[in-house]
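Batch job 17 of 40 flagged for manual review because the log was empty.
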Amino acid sequence: MLSRSETKKIARPVPGKTSGGCGGDTREGKLPENKKFGLGATTPHEMVDILEKLDRGQIINPTASKEMIDLMKREQARFAIGRTIPDPVATKYGALDALRSCIEIVYSKQGKIAMAITTDDMPVNWSVDNAGYLDDLAFVVAVNRWFMQSLIPG
């Protein structure tokens, strides 16, 4: 069973808009057929729900869910999640100019931990040491420290 953790930082992009630095409507956002979709918005809570369903084999079917998790386990980027964690992880990153999103399942010896973290309204910086990834990293370290300590008897 997955342990749930999430941040209170919930980004809700405005449909048809870019996030952060660019501003204004995107070219695709101006197309009439795309107006109903916009940029999209998913909360960290919704992303953790998806991770839990993937872990249980409930997205499409068990085989497809396993393939998606296996693909996430092969993610080589360790920009935030996994940067300081020795345990195996399944991750997926997303980014816009002023937004960074990370989702993960940590496969620790104590159990699985699912997280979804989004940082928005950050300065535009595409390096791996940008404010968004560093903020996400600090959150992940704190959650993992709390989770590991809560499992120690006594």
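Reviewer: the log was empty due to a logging misconfiguration, but the result itself is present. The longest strand covers residues 99-108. Unflagging and moving on to job 18.
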